[in-house]
Amino acid sequence: MFKPLIIILFFISTVLLFSNLSGKQYNPSAFNFSEWVEGGGRFLSFKFISMLLGLWVAPSLILLKVKVDWGGLKKEGLNYIFTIVLASLFLFFIYKLIEDAVTPIYKSARMTRSEVIPYHFIDSSNKYIQQIWFSPVLNFTIFDKAPYIDRKSAPKTVLLIISKSIRSDLFNQIVLSEGKQVHSQTTRIEACNTFSDSSLQCMFSLLSAPEYSELKASHQQNLIDLLTLAGVNVFWLSNNQPCGIICQKSDIEERGVTCDQANCLDEQLFANLLTDTLNNLNPAESNLIVIRTKAVGSPLYSKFYPIDYSKYTPECVTLLVRRCSDQALINSYKNALLYLKSMLERAAAQLFAFQSRHSSLEVSLIFTAEFGESLGEKGLYFHGTPKAIAPEEQLTVPIHIVDPRLPNNCLSQTHTNLTYNTIPHSLLGQFHIKSKAYKHSFDIQNLCLN
Hints:
With 450 residues, the protein is an alpha/beta fold. It has 16 helices and eleven strands.
């Protein structure tokens, strides 16, 4: 298999090189076979034939004539190990010499690297073939065509705040100087994955964690669909974090932060968008306000909070985090959590101020995160580790609820291991929605009151 594989790579590399030179670049992140071969006449040219002869035919013929003597397994294995170690040391030495110069180029040229490496072509072609011929064709699942809000219930406004990279243990350690917030309680909850798109989609999905898959979730109703069908007004406020596929089937109002700075802090979400949304809200209707914050992202945690929140020092303030100690990295992360918690208290104050102007209104605030974060435990940093081997720090996130109707500390006293399943069913329960999709055993309010 060695020679045929190399000959195939010779051919793919030649095609990619010619395509890039002729302006028809191959983009592995948005692979469309029919679109890529469109205008295939460009291959019927003297230039392409010359490149095939020089870069594919000639080296392939030479390779076929070369006799490969594999030798003994032990001897060749030692030779391979020695060569790899020697080459790695040599490359590492070169990298250390030019590290500061090449790091920005490396980050800005990721797409270019993908477009010229044959592996990406093979990988994306394989995914395309699987998607077209081997992926199951799923029908769209409708759980409930007519969910409705119980007429006897009081109007409800719920604020759901979603962040990133928040681990439950450090979140609980951060205490603001003002003291503990009234009616607030926190516990841990298991996330679905360690990266944004999958975990966020799971959060709004009605699938249980073991059976969840992105393909299944995209072919059935989700929480936003049921809420809007029932008559709940949904507002999606974000700092450059759009709702995307989750809201594409529903009629919602989506608004984003606009500012002139290179890096807009999440304060803009609460000072401008949330204030404006509450001022224009109809308190006699059911309303869900989703705030998806930008914080806290990896690896430069210090860019997610203003300098006034530098309580824990020393901090890590460089993108080259290898130059920072683990403690400095943790300090920056805790400062970002401190800033985030102050925003949560600010949001709760705004929400209860809104309630005080409308006596018959019920309100509650729910905060959770898309995934956790590793900060050096077992040599792992940040997030994105495959779920099958991901550590607890990347999969355990906090769920923080501010709701005067819940008994004190009931979350910490529940004996159920909470997962993302609780979020959609708890929100259906919060709005008193009658639906076939609702399961009271996953509703946090039901767990607390019972």
